[in-house]
Amino acid sequence: MERRTIGAGALAVGAVGLGCMPMSWAYSGSRQRGDESLRAVHRALDLGVTLLDTADMYGPFTNELLLGRVLRQRRAEAFVSTKVGLLVGEQHIVANGRPGYVRRACDASLRRLQTDVIDLYQLHRADPEVPVEETWGAMAELVRAGKVRALGLCAVGARGGRRSGAHLHDATLRQLRRVQQVFPVTAVQAELSVWSPEALESLLPWCAARGVGFLAAMPLGNGFLTGTLTPGEGFEPDDLRARHPRFTAEMMAANQPIVVGLRRVAARRGDGVTAAQVALAWVLAQGRHVVPVPGAKQGRWVAENAGSVEVRLSAEDLAELGGLPAAQGSWD
């Protein structure tokens, strides 16, 4: 697979990554099967999909444990990215950015992942009660201790602003400016897809200007852009999309023209190209510092996503995709 570099340290990863969250958390529990997920991770590494993205909160903890079973055998082939800063309770999620907690959480992630170093350690969310510089400083100490190779920041959740047209990533940019004074940022992870292109406005250019990698989260729109979801089919109660305003039957039907556009471009590319591959190819075309991280829990989807690297979109294709109707429905 094509390789891309992220950050000033030029860390090399496969051009498409693997989001591991769906294997253990947030999506239909009845479809989460450990053995199948293990095969999917092995398939990813076989194909050169080296960036494996997880977090201690996924499960919680079970996603890191699952990856650890693969890394025990194939650590040298993988680029391990995990996150810190969020704690999962019974009915809530809270941020914890205290330096002592960060150090303990890193040690726990290392044990679960069965490795002695994390390639990219990302701050999931800043703790509003702790200056972000203190949290970032503790993470920088982990780099100096040899437990972590590089640091990343996940974009602040700002979906509510979509309806007002606000600059959605202003808060993230303010955090980035602050932490850059403490220790270099290697990568930023934020949502980017055909139906959520907001990062193109300011966040992606900020990264490009500074040699910071951009990990595109949810590049397939939580599965919608694959064209495999049927409006009104419904989701299991534990699936995040069951409570998602953009995944009501009405909004899914209203946003079908986006999928139709992806399929139209895919048909022009020929050779069995899919809507999902076109959606990922669009993300890949946004810059050499961009690495899409689609979630998957089955080997066939991993292979299809990896194949997007071979899809070369023309200027006509990109113009057509850029002209697709804006997605309807809020993210609140």
UniProtKB/TrEMBL annotation:
Keywords: Oxidoreductase
Record's keyword annotation contains Oxidoreductase: yes
Top-rank lineage group of the source organism: Bacteria
Pfam families: Aldo_ket_red (PF00248)
One GO cellular component term: cytoplasm
Record carries keyword Oxidoreductase: yes
GO MF term (any one): oxidoreductase activity
InterPro entries membership: Aldo-Keto_reductase, NAD(P)_OxRdtase_dom_sf, NADP_OxRdtase_dom
Domain NADP-dependent oxidoreductase: 16-321
Protein name: Aldo/keto reductase
Originating organism: Streptomyces sp. R39
Organism ancestry: Bacteria, Bacillati, Actinomycetota, Actinomycetes, Kitasatosporales
